[in-house]
Amino acid sequence: MVKNLTVQEIVDQLGGTIVGDSSIILMSVGTLRNAGKGQITFYSDKSLSRYISQVEASVVVVSADDCDNFSGTITKIIVEKPYLYFAQVLDLMFGSEEGNADISSSAYLGANVSLADEVTVGPHVIIEDGAEISEGVILKARSYIGKKVKLGRNAVVHPGASILDDCEIGEDCVIHSGAVIGGDGFGYVQEEAKWIKVKQVGRVIISNGTEVGCNTTIDRGSIDDTIIGCGVKIDNQVQIGHNCNIGNHTIISGCVGIAGSVEIGQNCRVGGAAMFTGHLKVCDNVDISAGSLVSKNILEAGRYTSVYPLSEHAAWKKNAAAVRKLTELVKRVKDLENIVSITTEKNVTKR
Description:
Layout: E1 5-6, H1 7-14, E2 17-19, E3 25-26, E4 28-29, E5 39-42, E6 59-62, E7 75-78, H2 82-94, E8 108-109, E9 114-115, E10 120-121, E11 126-127, E12 132-133, E13 138-139, E14 144-145, E15 150-151, E16 156-157, E17 162-163, E18 168-169, E19 174-175, E20 180-183, E21 188-191, E22 194-197, E23 204-206, E24 211-212, E25 217-219, E26 226-228, E27 233-234, E28 239-240, E29 245-246, E30 251-252, E31 257-258, E32 263-264, E33 269-270, E34 275-276, E35 281-282, E36 286-288, E37 293-294, E38 302-304, H3 313-324, H4 326-344
Parallel strand pairs: 4-5, 5-6, 6-7, 8-11, 9-12, 10-13, 11-14, 12-15, 13-16, 14-17, 15-18, 16-19, 17-20, 18-23, 19-24, 20-25, 23-26, 24-27, 25-28, 26-29, 27-30, 28-31, 29-32, 30-33, 31-34, 32-35, 33-36, 34-37, 36-38
Antiparallel strand pairs: 1-3, 2-7, 21-22
């Protein structure tokens, strides 16, 4: 349910400077392009500047540098970081996740389950033997909590998510629908023509403040644990293999695939559909562009890209054909350089 707030009430709680009518009542939010009367929006992306003249929102959150770009009839809240401020406005107006501190009659609780105060257990939730559920946890309909799982304070598990045996989820974590935490890692050993399964006996440990998107899978470790650090944000449909270690405050976009035993440092950003081969190490503060294949260690901070640039198909085929000949072309260039060096008595191979 949306909470109606005046501009003044928002600024009283979040700060900022009001330019315009502080008594406007805000009933909802909207994008810069589509917000209308009674709604608040924000501006921080210069690529959206073409919509400024069309803004019909009652209030816009904006930086001091961009304030004068908006009509004097629009009330402004001037702040240093408009997008961050707007995120806080959303929390004020739409509230945080709240449970009803009730246990549904259709939920199943196994033996020796520990439920702290103010826990919400929704319809058809399954909590297996020995699980420990801390204060303020919300388990939504049809979520599954395996044996000896530990859930930290105020964790939220959305409908249909599964946290399998022995895994640990920290405080203030959010596990979205369809996510599977602690499924078997992909471990097999070849014996002649057959693949023999290697039992996966590690766990998944997810630290405080982490969010896991819909249908994301995080495999349990084969022997040691799979570790997800504090404040990590993982998008939908991400695969994290066994024994991976994801550093604090790293963010991973959708459809990323991370093979087993990859270590990714702190404060990294991984673009959508990036792929990591196994047993790699990526240091702190690394950005991986969307669609890139990471097949070797990254030991220096920075941005890395391995995507072949998009082009019209016929041009792409010609470029691809040229790439196949690069080794031959390099050899021919070296041969020519040697010939020039001999005939001119100058070393043209030095750069």
